[in-house]
């Protein structure tokens, strides 16, 4: 989005405010789809924990996407935004059997990632088809090493436990209709990903009635200039060819499924803030904005890098600033960043603010969660109001204790 557009949104709506560029989301969706055009059946399930505003879900649904969910509340948000239950997959980790049962009753595809739940669910509902999440124990090491690791990860059923899975399936007569993996690590090296895919193919051959293979996500997007991103086109070419060969071996055209979150929405998001004060200490110039980790926690939580630009002075001389928030706790967004000269009252925009930003926000310091704007067809649409004081206290119950100590 143009700086001038962002600036006029910041002026029109109160900051802080999140802005999402609908065209960018659409572009990313089609880029992924195109990369896999040689696969007969492709399904993209948007992982909505990245950004779960119902208008965003509705927008992504309009492209033909399905939905990947991790809680029954996300399932409900999906249905509220127009998804049919069968367009939703439920991939939780460590939730109760009751929650899984409730989601299955709605008619959503269940994905199970531990043996105990698999056995209990299969015993009770042998006729409800289930996908199993495996852990291939493959980690991308950031270079071309293929390391077998994460043996103690809490996600997925270890591939070393496949004999257990097969015994449970045989005993319960349950139906397995999909096999899934999502390692959570960035796909930087396509060969590492293809290696993990081989493990998924080998696992798939052990089940006769599959309908789909789900390769999860892990698409890396650039956060700063020069960042490596997943080469989707190359991955598409190589994996499609291999997948089609696998389908021949399997004797059936299975559906190839991905569940991207970050890839679809990260770069579409901007977080707009206003500078409350510029403060010079002995060795640092701080720019303090009207936000903190209550609104955007990734830099403090994961050490993530978000580019910060001054949209009020985009031609100004560049200087070094440490951008911090207004929370009574260390809340550094970026240290010694080169930013166009900042004056108090300027608007700063944080880039890559689409994924895991608003959805991880909180009310810490009793601040309101910000408004959200969708930029669509060259127009700004308000898709969430800023919170109010009434909302902040609506679930609190005041017990009015009488003062029992004389204070004067
Ligand atoms: C979070 C999650 C995703 C999305 O991951 P991104 O890195 O945002 O693409 C996909 N699948 C599952 C099961 C997840 O938990």
CATH homologous superfamily of the domain at 36-260 - what is it? Answer: Alanine racemase
Strand content: 15-25%
Q: Rough shape?
A: globular
At the first level of CATH, the class of the domain at 36-260 is Alpha Beta
Let me know the number of strands. 20
How much is the radius of gyration in Å? 24 Å
Helical fraction: 25-40%
Please outline the major beta sheet.
9 strands, mixed
Q: How many angstroms does the end-to-end distance come to? A: 59 Å
- The secondary-structure class comes to alpha/beta
Overall mean pLDDT? 94
CATH fold category name of the domain at 36-260: TIM Barrel
Tally of helical segments: 12
Which second-level CATH architecture of the domain at 36-260 applies? Alpha-Beta Barrel
Low-confidence stretches: 142-146
Q: What kind of oligomer do you see? A: single chain
Which cofactor or ligand species appear? pyridoxal-5'-phosphate
Set down the secondary structure blueprint.
Layout: H1 3-12, E1 17-21, H2 22-35, E2 42-47, H3 54-62, E3 66-69, H4 72-80, E4 88-90, H5 97-106, E5 109-112, H6 115-124, E6 130-135, E7 138-140, E8 146-148, E9 157-158, H7 162-172, E10 176-180, H8 190-204, E11 212-214, H9 232-250, E12 255-258, H10 262-265, E13 269-280, E14 285-289, H11 298-302, E15 308-310, E16 318-324, E17 332-340, E18 347-350, E19 371-376, E20 379-384, H12 389-393
Helix pairs in contact: 2-9, 6-7, 8-9
The chain binds pyridoxal-5'-phosphate.
Pyridoxal-5'-phosphate is lined by residues 47, 49-50, 68, 70, 91, 182, 216-219, 259-263, 355.
């Amino acid at each position: 989005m143009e700086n001038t557009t962002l600036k006029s949104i910041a002026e029109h709506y109160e900051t802080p405010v999140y802005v999402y560029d609908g065209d960018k989301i659409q572009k990313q969706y089609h880029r992924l789809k195109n990369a896999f055009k040689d696969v007969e059946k492709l399904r993209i399930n948007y992982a909505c924990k990245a950004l779960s505003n119902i208008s965003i879900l509705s927008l992504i649904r309009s492209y033909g996407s399905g939905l990947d969910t991790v809680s029954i509340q996300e399932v409900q948000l999906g249905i509220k935004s127009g998804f049919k239950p069968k367009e939703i997959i439920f991939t939780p980790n460590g939730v109760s059997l009751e929650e899984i049962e409730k989601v299955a009753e709605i008619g959503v595809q269940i994905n199970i990632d531990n043996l105990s739940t698999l056995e209990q669910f299969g015993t009770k509902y042998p006729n409800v088809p289930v996908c199993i999440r495996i852990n291939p124990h493959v980690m991308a090491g950031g270079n071309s090493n293929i390391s077998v690791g994460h043996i103690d990860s809490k996600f997925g059923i270890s591939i070393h436990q496949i004999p257990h899975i097969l015994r449970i399936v045989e005993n319960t007569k349950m139906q397995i209709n999909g096999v899934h993996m999502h390692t959570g690590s960035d796909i930087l090296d396509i060969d590492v990903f293809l290696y993990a895919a081989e493990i998924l193919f080998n696992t798939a051959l052990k089940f006769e009635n599959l309908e789909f293979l789900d390769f999860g996500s892990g698409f890396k997007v650039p956060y700063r200039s020069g960042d490596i991103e997943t080469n989707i086109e190359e991955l598409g070419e190589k994996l499609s060819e291999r997948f089609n060969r696998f389908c021949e071996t399997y004797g059936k055209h299975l559906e190839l499924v991905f569940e991207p979150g970050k890839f679809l929405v990260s770069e579409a998001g901007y977080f707009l803030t206003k500078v409350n004060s510029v403060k010079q200490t002995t060795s640092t110039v701080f720019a303090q904005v009207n936000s903190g980790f209550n609104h955007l926690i990734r830099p403090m939580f994961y050490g993530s890098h978000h580019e910060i630009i001054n949209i009020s002075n985009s031609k100004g001389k560049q200087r070094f600033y440490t951008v911090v928030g207004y929370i009574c706790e260390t809340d550094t967004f970026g240290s010694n960043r080169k930013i166009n000269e900042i004056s108090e009252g300027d608007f700063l925009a944080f880039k890559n603010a689409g994924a895991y930003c608003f959805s991880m926000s909180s009310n810490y310091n009793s601040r309101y969660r910000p408004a959200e704007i969708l930029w669509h067809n060259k127009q700004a649409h308000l898709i969430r109001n800023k919170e109010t004081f009434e909302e902040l206290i609506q679930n609190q119950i005041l017990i009015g204790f009488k003062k029992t100590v004389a204070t004067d």
